[in-house]
Amino acid sequence: MKIIECPRDAMQGFPKQIETKQKVDYINQLLRVGFHTIDFGSFVSPKAIPQMADTKEVLSQLNLNETSSELLAIIANIKGAETGVTFPEIKYLGYPFSISETFQLRNTKKTIADSQLLIKDIKKLLTTQELVVYISMGFGNPYGDHWNTSVVERYVDFLVNEGITTISLADTLGMANTKDIESVFNTLSKRYEGIEFGAHFHSTPQNWQDKTQAAYDSGCLRFDVAMKGYGGCPFADDHLVGNTATEQFITWMEQRGLAHSLDMEAFNKALAMSSEVFKSE
Fold first, then answer.
1. At a CB cut-off of 8 Å and minimum separation 6, what does 228 contact?
2. Which of 29, 72, 162, 187 is found 20 to 30 A from 152 (Cα to Cα)?
3. Better pLDDT: 121 or 230
4. What is the pLDDT of residues 9-53, one digit of tens each?
5. Overall domain count for the chain
6. Using CA atoms, how far apart are residues 243 and 67, in angstroms rounded to an integer?
7. Cβ proximity of 220 and 253 under 8 Å
8. What pLDDT is stored for residue 235 in this prediction?
């Protein structure tokens, strides 16, 4: 099981600006826990996501000498990719690729066709990094854009042909149901050997567990989470829609006898710190 802790996703839409030092201290604590990957920041326009404007400064102060965790940063255009590839300490660059034309335009001001060309260009820039593609609106959309499992397959075909080996399916607005989750993961896991498929679920406190169980039962072994469920999509109308809470996900694993190698003392310290980091007053 690969657990991807996502402080970037938790922080990016937080209404109060989080000080750089506080980000650094928090992420350094997360690096002690033993997560597979820390989604720590993004190279995007500070006008679009002001909370991430200090990603370079945060990165320069991270203690990477005694951690097994890899770093992931989100990019949204070629400029972000050009910046990201200059930092060898970052193992993964993540690109949000929506299979909803409406959302792709809203999120990155690009069409799906534009984004396909961009992925080709980003791949040419990569040196030591790997590109992780997030298929946003991976389980449907509220805009009336056509969606079914075959649509997902069509775009996964494109990504696999471009050499992408890690693809995360995102329930961007928290609207996925367990039937569609099972259909997508069962289909993809059987069709594409050697490709790692992950789940990035935005959910309510009432349905995160059903979604997680459906994905796991259908072959998913990579999950994005965030302490206390902070974050989610800034376009979601429901304020209860957030990330899967890390502490609940770990309990879910333990209840099912699924092993993890996290340092729980470091984990509990990070969990306590998250209350201060995301303090609204």
1. 245, 246, 247, 271, 274, 275, 278
2. 72
3. 121
4. 999 989 899 999 999 999 999 999 999 999 999 999 999 899 999
5. 1
6. 24
7. no
8. 44
CA distances from 259 to 2, 221, 224, 255 (A): 11, 12, 17, 10
Q: What is the largest CA-CA distance in the chain?
A: 49
Residue of 209, 172, 166 lying closest to 188 (CA atoms):
166
- The one-character DSSP state at 4 is E
CB 246 within 8 A of CB 226: yes
From residue 23, alpha-carbon distances to 30, 40, 174, 242 in Å are 10, 9, 26, 20
- pLDDT, residue 232, reads 66
150-207 residue pLDDT tens: 999 999 999 999 999 999 999 988 889 999 999 999 999 999 999 999 999 998 778 8
Instruction: Give the Cα-Cα-Cα angle 194, 221, 190 (nearest 5 degrees).
Output: 45
Q: Where in the sequence is the domain holding 262, given as residue range(s)?
A: 2-277
Question: Rounded to whole angstroms, how far apart are CA atoms 24 and 215?
Answer: 32
- Model confidence at 238: pLDDT above 90: no
The residues pairing with 167 across neighbouring beta strands, listed in sequence order, are 133, 197
Specify the CATH number for the domain of residue 192.
3.20.20.70
CB-CB contact of 193 with 172 (8 Å): no
Q: How far apart are CA 71 and CA 79, in angstroms?
A: 19
- φ/ψ (deg, to 5) at 144: 90, 5
